[in-house]
Amino acid sequence: MIEAGRGAIVVTGNTSSLRGVPSYALFAPTKAAQRILAESLARDLGPKRIHVGYVTIDGSIEAPWLSEGGRTPPAWHPPPAGWEGPREEWFVQPDAIAEEVFHMAHQHPSTWTFDLIIRPFAEKW
């Protein structure tokens, strides 16, 4: 990428990169380190026309394969009790994530984004 004078590196992470939450004390520091590494790479590689961005996914990602073949999805996977909307609005959809990552990787150099936080509309934040 450096020789070509262009390119993109997009790193995906989750909310733990920004704040710790109960029961995830061992997980948050690793995600924060991942984000800081990406930021360091962005500052180093940006002047070389390599776009580095970080996408925070703040929500549960839909994983349809968890219920394929008659399998029962894990207990942690359904929308919360009382959710009345369509399932696809509670979970972050993989194709929608891919669209956002693609967009970030193809931004014009005059408008590069480093931090992008995506979440479903119903996610508490």
3D architecture notes:
- The protein contains 3 helices and 3 strands, in the order βαβααβ.
- It is 27% helix and 16% strand.
- The chain is of the alpha/beta class and 125 residues long.
- The chain is elongated.
- Strand 1, helix 1 and strand 2 form a beta-alpha-beta unit.
- Strands 1-2-3 form a 3-stranded parallel β-sheet, with helices on both faces.
- The protein starts with 6 loop residues before the first strand and ends in a 7-residue tail after the last strand.
- The mean pLDDT is 90.
Strand content: 15-25%
Classify the helix fraction into a percent range. Answer: 25-40%
- Which whole number gives the mean pLDDT? 90
Unreliable runs, pLDDT <50, ≥5 residues? none
> What spatial order of strands do you see in the largest sheet?
1-2-3
Taken in chain order, the helices and strands follow as EHEHHE
End-to-end gap:
36 Å
Count every beta strand, where a strand is a DSSP E run of 2 or more residues: 3
Keywords, please?
single chain; 125 residues; alpha/beta; 27% helix
Secondary-structure blueprint:
Elements: E1 7-14, H1 28-45, E2 50-57, H2 87-90, H3 94-105, E3 115-118
Parallel strand pairs: 1-2, 2-3
